[in-house]
Specification:
- The chain has helices at 3-14, 66-73, 100-114, and strands at 27-30, 37-45, 56-63, 78-80, 89-93.
- With 123 residues, it is α+β, with helices and mostly antiparallel strands.
- 24% of the residues are buried.
Length: 123
């Protein structure tokens, strides 16, 4: 999934647009009602992910169930969260077609984990 395919999917699923708070190519995906982040797309040097080769890659940070993070990190293309809480977030390398469905599932989970609490309204 490319960054553009990811943004298109989020637009279709959640009605959200990428936000560029740092005036660069890095983007935040936010809830429309509470502005909480459910995803962050970053350009990262491969070496910062522990990879031997050089170059820049796009990664997606998503909030995740801590129980799942250990097993996900054992898979190719999944890394400790870059610049986020490593106990609750995970980084996924984009542009790996074999991960597209996993990315969609993890984005859905992240969206659910970061949405606001429902308020009980008495009638």
């Amino acid at each position: 999934m490319t960054r553009q395919e990811l943004f298109d999917w989020c637009r279709q699923q959640y009605g959200t647009e990428p936000d560029y708070p740092w005036n660069d190519w890095n983007a935040v995906l936010r809830h429309t009602d509470n502005n909480k982040w459910y995803g962050v797309v970053l350009e990262v040097d491969r070496r910062k992910l522990g990879l031997a080769d050089e170059g820049i890659v796009d990664i997606l940070n998503v909030k995740c169930d801590p129980v799942m993070i250990g097993s996900l990190r054992m898979q190719n293309g999944f890394y400790p969260a870059y610049h986020m809480n490593k106990d609750k977030w995970i980084s996924i390398m984009l542009d790996r077609p074999e991960s597209d469905e996993t990315i969609k599932g993890l984005l859905t989970l992240s969206y659910e984990l970061t949405k606001g609490k429902s308020k009980n309204i008495k009638s």
